[in-house]
Amino acid sequence: MHGTTRGKAGTSAAPAADLSADHGEAMHRLVTELYPLCRSITGDGVRQTLAALLAYIPLNVCEVPSGMEVFDWTVPQEWNIRDAYIKNGAGERVVDFRAHNLHVVGYSTPINARMTLAELRPHLFSDPAHPDWIPYRTSYYKETWGFCLSHRQLEALPEDDYQVVIDSSLEPGHLTYGELVLRGSSTDEVLISCHVCHPSLANDNLSGIAVATALAQQLAARELRYTYRLLFIPGTIGAITWAALRQAHLGKIKHGFVLTCVGDGGHPTYKVSRRGNAEIDQAWRYVLQQSGAAFEILPFSPFGYDERQFCSPGLNLPVGCLMRTPHGKFPEYHTSADNPSFVRPEGLHDTLQLALTTIDVIENNRRYRNQKPMCEPRLGKYGLYSSIGGQSASDYQMALLWLLNMSDGDHTVLDIAERAALPWDLIKQATQALLAAELLKAAD
Amino acid sequence: MHGTTRGKAGTSAAPAADLSADHGEAMHRLVTELYPLCRSITGDGVRQTLAALLAYIPLNVCEVPSGMEVFDWTVPQEWNIRDAYIKNGAGERVVDFRAHNLHVVGYSTPINARMTLAELRPHLFSDPAHPDWIPYRTSYYKETWGFCLSHRQLEALPEDDYQVVIDSSLEPGHLTYGELVLRGSSTDEVLISCHVCHPSLANDNLSGIAVATALAQQLAARELRYTYRLLFIPGTIGAITWAALRQAHLGKIKHGFVLTCVGDGGHPTYKVSRRGNAEIDQAWRYVLQQSGAAFEILPFSPFGYDERQFCSPGLNLPVGCLMRTPHGKFPEYHTSADNPSFVRPEGLHDTLQLALTTIDVIENNRRYRNQKPMCEPRLGKYGLYSSIGGQSASDYQMALLWLLNMSDGDHTVLDIAERAALPWDLIKQATQALLAAELLKAAD
Amino acid sequence: MHGTTRGKAGTSAAPAADLSADHGEAMHRLVTELYPLCRSITGDGVRQTLAALLAYIPLNVCEVPSGMEVFDWTVPQEWNIRDAYIKNGAGERVVDFRAHNLHVVGYSTPINARMTLAELRPHLFSDPAHPDWIPYRTSYYKETWGFCLSHRQLEALPEDDYQVVIDSSLEPGHLTYGELVLRGSSTDEVLISCHVCHPSLANDNLSGIAVATALAQQLAARELRYTYRLLFIPGTIGAITWAALRQAHLGKIKHGFVLTCVGDGGHPTYKVSRRGNAEIDQAWRYVLQQSGAAFEILPFSPFGYDERQFCSPGLNLPVGCLMRTPHGKFPEYHTSADNPSFVRPEGLHDTLQLALTTIDVIENNRRYRNQKPMCEPRLGKYGLYSSIGGQSASDYQMALLWLLNMSDGDHTVLDIAERAALPWDLIKQATQALLAAELLKAAD
């Protein structure tokens, strides 16, 4: 009903690049490839973006018609733009959509008129705090038109007889999004979401698109416990539309996170879900703590990205948000300075590795029960203990002891890992060794 | 049985001054007006004080007879004093009650005798740490007499033939207190209490009397949800007497606070109730945090003012204590240096404003339920959102989003205000806007 | 079945020294007396140690046969050693068990052979980080032999024709431990445990043996509420053996702690039980906080001493561990530098006093109910309040007020003491005064 798989256009013959192969360089190339497209919450920019992703992952591209009621909202008319400019009296394009798609206020209605600077002025937007950058502005729900330009250019505009043209259309059409489902042994799901509605802005959010695509490639190659649902959706209205259409299905979502602004040079930042103590929140906190690098955990707040929708009180899904530098905390945010050179391959790479580790934690997080709970088992019998006594315990031995001590059927492996403050690879290895020795058995 | 309203004596024709009108000056004038009266836990000093307050608020003045059993206590005999002095051999009053009523130990029994310095000495009290100040001492429950004087004066007293006179009476009579009830739409009550038993001491507690009187004036002019009960009572025995008489009524008290030492130059200090997490504790904490100025929150302890009685384990009322600098933390405490010049108009004013805000929080604190809980409602439809997107949210928009996100029937407006860390006026305004838009409805 | 009382060998006529009498000197003499014995997890060294303790306390000495199955373990063969050395080609003992019993790896199998340095080398253990000290090594569960020596000596060993002799035996025998039960009015028990399996090592754990012995002497002279069970057991296998034999009895243990490394110059360190909030954990935390000296509280971890066994998930006893400097945190740990001069009389004394106070807290910790819970009782009636008012409350008055305020049947005396942050002697004295005045009565 609400999804049709499209074939890959033009790229189907070439093998998909492994986006995790070269420390983020491949993800960065994808960011650069998608950067010129003029995305919005609807329209051909989103379609072109999803079509390009089909070269990497087998997305379902879904189209939802304008006018459909989705919770308190209505799917809007589809917006497309071909050209836009402001010409001066000499006929020169002084502001030109073809030079930068941020020059046009998103969802601008068509116009073709001559006017004075005074008439034009209320339709011009700039950012005096960053006078060389073009700001990003939209007007999705109030029909108007406008241009964005650098404050330096705005201030230099002379009185003149300007020709103002926006060759756009705002008509009934569709809202487009991409969805990829990777089946695991359980029908319980992990939701990973990114937004695809921003025009030429790189960290916000081509970085999220690139990391989500790389994650999908990695997960597709694995045996999975959970089913993974990756969304490439327009922000807000896309998430609302998806949630309204999938309402009966939302109970399947056991964990999730939104990926946004994940390519800059800042440290990782995880914003917890509305629940605050969901397993996904615990997993991200543990993985970031164990990373040995700087990080930040933010409390939930009802502003940000699509976690706003997933964490509305009626849904209250266990969905957090992974960022590096959060929106609004880097000056380039929502300006022309958020371009591909602002995004760093190593930032994308680090984000991907952290997400893969977090997913590995979630995949392997269970409750076990120690089968020899009366005093310690004699680990030497199972080949799990050094034979020469009197020395300190290694981290691996500590992992064994923590797992045995706290595996009482109440604590999860993640509870134990956090308490032990040991790296995930040691905890996972020790869990497997204790399972192999039949000293642990699944409690649920 | 336990309350008789008296007419205002002499002042009934004059319009009552608005004690909140001039940044605390009017409250300070009330402190100065009441300062000379010789209050104690019983007697005419309390009656004169309450009579003076009748010029401002329509108090009920209640009289409870000596000898009445009140819990583990007995209402004491009534003490009155007309004159007291120590004359030297030359007939000069070297210590004179008329110069300062702190010179006499409270509840001193009558005496008229000649004696040597050695005989007099055990009845003299001074404070070597503050040699110029007269300390405040009482002996309510052991019949004795005594004088307080500055340590400098005490040390300079020569051997002499002293005449010692205390013209007091300690006889069956009454304990007197004032009570004012302001009816709200609910019979649930807020208790506000101050003590009226200290003689010429200004911060402790004419400041509390002045702020409580001003609060009563302000509340009397409002539509109230709760019923407010303001007590002007002698410390300890007054509170115990009131609680014993009102025992069946105590369950109506849902919130409360004691006002004491609220006029000095220090920052506000709130001592939480024995419950520790009562709504009144939460409200004071939030209001002080949002004030932007220094403040302190103290844990409950079983020493202090009448919160000791209200928070005894058998009552356990949700009653905290608001102070500025706490008793015992300013050197002037319980000495002649706690005079009207120690109390500052701006301190009284700030206390009053904080108390009014806290009461406004309590009055408006309810649980609501978001009527569009599935994803966010489209606030633009209700005129509640800026139409040009891409910019940061204002504090007002954040207040709207927090209220919508957390109004799930579990969280109160105060819970949300604390979590959002936004000022009360924004939260209140946003709540009203969401109610008007029917996006929130009362959950209880 | 598992215990036989032995007579005191040779010392029964002499009166037992009071180990608490002289600020730790007597306990230090006991450490020095026991230091030369070559203890291990079985064998005559443990027997000699327990026999020496019989001069101080009437221990039961228990013998458990080799081969008995105890949970996941088996009681090992008994190890005894008479002599051991490495002779060089000149016939000189270059490494000599008689010089220091740490020279032999614990549980070394017998050997008598000539070999080159290259053949000998894999059997030699040293600690390059501390080149002058002999390290302590064992091999209980893998049959091998070895020598420990200073790294400086190891590096200086020339090529030679070495004669290597270990005159030991590893044969079926017994595991030996000591147990002392002091009966209280209740059959509920307090477990106090120390390990007796280390050869010439002083802080780890002759200090624990000395303090446990002194505690036993002190407790034997008192009227006790709880029954006290003191264990002098080989580490790990001794605790496991005891727990397996006493399995049906473990439910009687309401509190407990392990004593180890309690004689060095560091501050006291208490490691909480696995439960984390057991009454014994609370008592130790309170006593250390009230001590006024530096201390540390460690979270539970599944490494350390016999709390590992007592806090295994199947037992989960409320047993913590008291140390001064924890194992592994002092460089002398498990080396020849942990000798009697490393242990200080004042460290032993301080540990003993803290343990006695903690036990006094546990003995007197109950829930009471205030018999005058409506407002405060009039303390003056009971002789519990100063008659001259207006002054600050003393700590003793605060103790009275806290006990009255919080004795609602829910809070224990220890809860109140912690909350009041007052010393134990004041709390205890105030409790007794309020009981005498019948203002408190036992709630359970």
Automatic annotation (TrEMBL), chains A, B, C:
GO terms for molecular function: aminopeptidase activity; metal ion binding. The keyword Phosphoprotein does not apply. Residues 28-365 form the DUF4910 domain. Zn(2+) binds at H198, D204, H334. The keyword GTP-binding does not apply. Binds 1 zinc ion per subunit. SUPFAM superfamilies: Zn-dependent exopeptidases. Residues 78-169 form the DUF2172 domain. Keywords: Aminopeptidase, Hydrolase, Metal-binding, Protease, Zinc. Residues 367-441 form the UCP01524 winged helix-turn-helix domain. It comes from the Bacteria. Its cofactor is Zn(2+). This is Aminopeptidase-like protein. It comes from Rhodopseudomonas faecalis.
